[in-house]
Write a structure and sequence with these properties.
about 140 residues, alpha+beta, 4-stranded antiparallel beta sheet, 4 strands, about 50% helix, globular
Length: about 140
């Protein structure tokens, strides 16, 4: 059985003067789009982006709007950032989004990887709904 090697990177995209960041996962030399942070979602998740960068042993100032090069992230930081994007995307209530972010940050690495695999697999919509309910009931 071969081991899957997964890495994450934040790629800056500045189009028409608007800052955005794209989270890309590379699995065994195959790149795939995971999430795009732009507009309101970028502002809501800026703290999570900075946390992922800091957890990957980079200074927080690396998230400059003028940056051109991708920012490599550790697997754990990339998985957590992807989960935050996937689960908080459709949520409008800030308190509920915050509860979900805090819950994902409190997960162990194994638990975060489990939920990431489940939320990006064939039953993703049900898994995302279950995770939202688990972390921030309404």
């Amino acid at each position: 059985m071969t081991q899957t090697l997964r890495t994450f990177a934040l790629q800056p995209e500045n189009t028409a003067g608007k800052e955005s960041w794209t989270l890309v996962a590379t699995t065994n030399d195959r790149k795939e789009f995971v999430a795009r942070f732009t507009g309101k979602q970028l502002e809501r998740n800026r703290h999570s982006l900075a946390g992922a960068v800091a957890n990957s042993k980079h200074p927080r100032t690396i998230l400059s709007p003028t940056r051109k090069a991708p920012v490599p992230l550790t697997e754990d930081a990339g998985v957590r950032l992807a989960l935050i994007h996937l689960t908080t995307g459709p949520i409008a209530k800030p308190d509920r989004s915050d509860a979900i972010r805090y819950g994902i940050d409190a997960m162990s690495s194994e638990e975060a990887l489990y939920w990431y695999a489940y939320c990006t697999g064939p039953v993703a919509s049900r898994a995302l709904r279950a995770l939202r309910t688990l972390l921030a009931e309404e």
